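Practice set, problem 2.
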Amino acid sequence: PAQPAPVDPETPSPEPKKTQEPDDEKIEYFGNTRFPKFRAKPRRTITPGDAIGQATPTVKPAPQTLKEQAQQKWRDILSPEKNLESRARIIHDIGHSYFQDIVDLRDNGDKLFEAPKQLIRSSKAHYLPSVSGKTLAGQKTDVIDLCRGKTTLLAVNFNKFSELHTNSFIDPFEAAFADSEDAQVVRLNIEENWAKAMVLQMCLPYLRRHTPKDRHANYLIHYGDVEGLRKSMGIANSLIGYVFLIDKELRVRWYGNGLAVMSEAQSMVMLTQRLIPNKKK
């Protein structure tokens, strides 16, 4: 058999080819420092027209006494599954910065997609998830209780900036259905950060004064994590306002985000009219 050629010990071995680092893995720093710049992560948005929400309607648990609540809390503390869920939430909160939402807004704009022009079929539509809180009227309730029985435009806000977006949908909705007893607007104000929640609580008197009194009962405030709501309802950026058209059976039939364009407002009004029952005079 042929013998391999002898290798000259003084001949340098060829250097391995350097794999070029992909652009999306490169880390950019501020000036000459080692502080990395915030970068927007790729948006994970839903496809317009897809069913959103939870597959089955919410079943409320039976009310618990204080003793039962304390026992359940203790079981959750000792539960490995609950501890893993809590750890996963903490890791997500650390990895997702408020500044990433700002950079995402700067790079991708304040609109995820244009709202669909058709209703989601009732047979394919999913249900609105449960979010509890307290209304400006002082009543403890749940968003599904506020929306049940009426065609509802649900506006979800995480901050003052996003109210500009939801108001661009609410104004034409209220103008079209001001005299309707079967259509309503429900506002859901969410604050996940405990420090900001304390500030919001101190600002409640100001919020009540600047919100018409007839809207207090349908203005719900929630403090705490809503990761389940984010995932099921396609909420990709907390700086953007979201609206959802909910039928009287609590199914999500249509949705929009960002500032409404004229075609979206017209579609919303037209689709809402389809959901409102025609009353014979």
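Problem 2, part (b): a different protein.
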Amino acid sequence: MSVSGAQDKSNDSKAPREPIAGPEVLEPPYPILVEGEVVSGFGRGGKQLGIPTANLPEEVVERTLADIPIGVYYGWARVEGDSGEVRPMVMSLGWNPYFKNEKRSGEVHIIHKYADDFYGKHMQVAILAYIRPEKDYDCLDALIDDIHTDIRVAVASLARPAYARVRENPFFTS
């Protein structure tokens, strides 16, 4: 399986997207298992986008995820204090060109409504497949629309048996 790392300069978030991403069964290098303390990010996810994110520590992004291409991924995540629930997630790994970030970040959106943030809590993430390359956008609404499409793709993709089984991985019980 080839995973592209090129940044897509296309701003056409209305172009048709496939409803499922990734092959029917996991292929190397997946799953990629990472964990760390949720750290403060740029404060945009929940406030500006309405899509809160839990940010991976810089060490995880720079060391553990250094060899995978920038882009959007999906998988499962568990956060300390969430009754042990393993929930679907989408993750942006990259530079976030719309916001002109100066460092690479790993921003995980757990697909669940939480009452409170969980900065400082331990988070485990199983990255299972690549959805799309990172894009630059002309406007915030186009970015938000694409993220909502990523969420739909993640939920549909995770419903397949090979992906759903990863929820039970011993990684999440340690």
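Answer key, part (b): The longest strand covers residues 122-132. Residues 1-13 have pLDDT under 50 and may be disordered.
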